[in-house]
Amino acid sequence: MKLKSLLIPIFLLLSASAYAIQVSAPDVTVEPGAKVTIGIAVDSTAGIAGGDITLEYDPTFAVAKEARATDIAKPLSPLSNIAIAGKVKFAMAALTPLGAGSGNLFEVDFELKATSGTMPLKLTGVGLFDEMGNDLPVTVKNGSITVKEKQVVPRNLTIADAKGVQDANITTTVSIDDLTGIAKGNIALKYDPKMLSIAEVKAGDLLTGVPVVINTATAGKITLAIASPIGAPGGKGVLFSITFKGIAVGISDLAFESAVASDETGKDIPVQTANGKITVEKKPCTNPVIREHSAGSKILALQTSYDGVDVPGYAYVDLWKGEFTVEAGQFLEYQIAMFSGNPVFSAAVDFVTSDGKTLRDSGAKDQNGLNAHPATDLSKNARDNWYHRKISLDPLVGKKLTGGVLATDSAKHGAGLFRAYFDNIQITQDDCVVLFIYKDEDVVPITGKDTSNTTAIVGAKATKDSSISVVGTTPVTPSGKLTSTWGSIKNSR
After folding, report:
1. pLDDT tier at 473 (50, 70, 90 boundaries)?
2. Within this chain, do residues 114 and 73 fall inside the same structural domain, yes or no?
């Protein structure tokens, strides 16, 4: 009998728990700034004639804007109250209980204040009763509202590829796909200063009114900064335009060394970067190299007289004055002819530099290995022929040419009149003329007249009556006399 009496209360307790009505609030996850509706639900409506429920929440996280009964609860004459911050109260009572069913008895509309985090939804003071006023067994399941942190989409910074030619401007841009919310930013770019130099960097229209700092003081680097008290309302497009001058032919990366952005509170805004390339192409050649004398064109005649047989002498007659800095890969090119009857077959174009160096003493040679010095014997190449010479100026790289002469220089020769003819005197690079010293003009460059008879740049010794003259179609015959026809003169290289 004792065992039976003990089992009866346990059975009754288990039966009551098994038939308890669950009152629950949901767990929901929403975006920042969303409006959310949550329901207060029961898993069984059978026998419910009334009750009280309080929903507690954090008023700093959200605000209850409206509470209402659902169609399920309306037969119970429900009331709701949202007047107290942090609480929503529900009450209901009727003479006739609800029948079988389940679902939301009430709904609450919340407006979220928080931009992230979780707010508990706590059900308190929960009581349900039947039509006789007897309490119905209940269980409670609390809920929550989670505001997931807004995923900030990275902003894309892009450098446009650009292409141009040597010695000309090449412009590229740094663009963004969305400036919204960005108040501050710092960008550092790097490039090859051996290929590019900065001509101009300026902010785009997208940054009108925004304080901007641009620094190009360090060769090979550009830093760009913006600083505004408020985040940008929006926009996309060009942040900065960068204009380079092409120095050397090739391709230079224009790459982001760093890039950061933040909003007006200092919170980082992620950025993604895409580098660009700047291509510098060879400058179009508007003056191709002239490697052959044109019959009938004007030429320069160098003339002097050697005083005596094998008396060392020279004449360096002034041709040109100016300033030209030699770069790697440049050449002196010209055509020269001397005719049988000359006392010697040694002549050349020579240059002096601002620091007193000379082409003749630099060791420079032409395409056939012949020294550039005016004392070099050209009898096998330029005697009764036009001989084209291409002489590397690499021994003078970095030096400034300030004077040019036509010269003959000899220690072993006959006596008497010497003449040599020159045409198309040019400094070249990559098959293009970068400086014409003489090309079919009517005047000698240094005088602006048809003659030059000074030897001030270098000098003369054991020679006389030295001069440069512009000559038309009047070369020399083997006897050294001027004639009116080119006769059998032929071009050679």
Report:
1. low
2. yes
C-beta of residue 49 within 8 angstroms of C-beta of residue 94: yes
Residues 237-269 as b or e (16 or more Cβ within 10 Å = b):
ebbbbbebbbbeeeebebebeebebbbeeeeeb
Q: Give the largest Cα separation in the chain, rounded.
A: 159
Same domain, 177 and 313: no
Same domain, 139 and 74: yes
Does the predicted TM-score (pTM) go above 0.85? no
Asked whether residue 131 falls in the same domain as residue 169, the answer is no
Contact 246, 165 (CB under 8 A): yes
pLDDT digits (tens, 9 = 90+) for 371-423: 999 999 999 999 999 999 999 999 999 999 999 999 999 999 999 999 999 99
Residue whose token pair is 């959310």 = 36
- 273 and 176 together in one domain: yes
- What is the domain extent for residue 324? 299-492
Q: Which of 220, 248, 281 is the last residue before a domain boundary?
A: 281
Which contiguous run of DSSP H or E holds residue 380?
helix 379-382
Q: Are 434 and 330 in contact (CB under 8 A)?
A: yes
User: 44 φ, ψ to 5°?
Assistant: -155, 130
In this structure, the answer to whether residues 118 and 178 fall within a common structural domain is no
Residue 221 is which amino acid? K
Q: H or E element: which one contains 11?
A: helix 2-18
Tell me the CATH number at 373: 2.60.120
Instruction: Tell which residue, 159, 177, 190, 145, has the closest CA to residue 31.
Output: 145
Number of domains in the chain: 3
